[in-house]
Design brief:
- With 196 residues, the protein is an all-alpha fold.
- The chain has two domains: 78 residues, Multidrug-efflux Transporter Regulator, Chain: A, Domain 2; 91 residues.
- Helix content is 74%, strand content 2%.
- The chain contains seven helices and two strands; from the N terminus they run H-H-E-E-H-H-H-H-H.
- It has a two-stranded antiparallel sheet.
- A hairpin with a 6-residue loop joins strand 1 and strand 2.
- The longest helix is centred in the last third of the chain and has 91 residues.
- It is rod-shaped and about 130 Å long.
- GO terms for molecular function: DNA binding.
- Keywords: Coiled coil.
- InterPro entries: DNA-bd_dom_put_sf (IPR009061), MerR-type_HTH_dom (IPR000551).
Length: 196
Amino acid sequence: MSELLSIKEISQELGIPQSTLRYYRDLFMDYLPAAGEGKKKRFYPEAVVVFQTIAKGMHKNKNADDIASDLNQRFTRFIDVNEADEKTQESSATYSQNDEIHQSQALTSLTQLDGSAIMAVIASQNQALQQIAATVSIVNEQQEELHNLKQEVTNLEERLERELTNHFQLVDTQLRQAIEQRETRKLKSFWQRLFA
């Protein structure tokens, strides 16, 4: 049998504070293989990998539901039968039909808990997907609006360029006419201008 580890030993091995490991333990105890009760609780070496996975998830800012989903995919879930149904333990060593009913009820309630937990995860994922879809829709609308604005700016620039070209051509024509009129006035003699 492999040596059991305390929170302190796991903390030293992973470089994670003991208080943080206790917090992880309290949130995800179902995934941590352990033996003992209370302060005497010790963890099997396999729990180190579970603690690492939890720490990585927390480091990536995942919420507890997402981390639990990751753990559920990668690790076995441990259920303390004593906590699940204390009524099934009786002081006598005899096995009765009542014990069988209590155990069946405990397993049914655990199955329902697992089912409801799965449904809660699915519901939260559906909600997240709906939010993502709404965000994508908004982004698409904004991109279309941006494209329309760019097209409008391009049209306005072309119009401005045409109008400026026409304006400069008109000014140029008027200046040439004014210069030509001035030239023709200078060519006429004093008497031609006077009697004209």
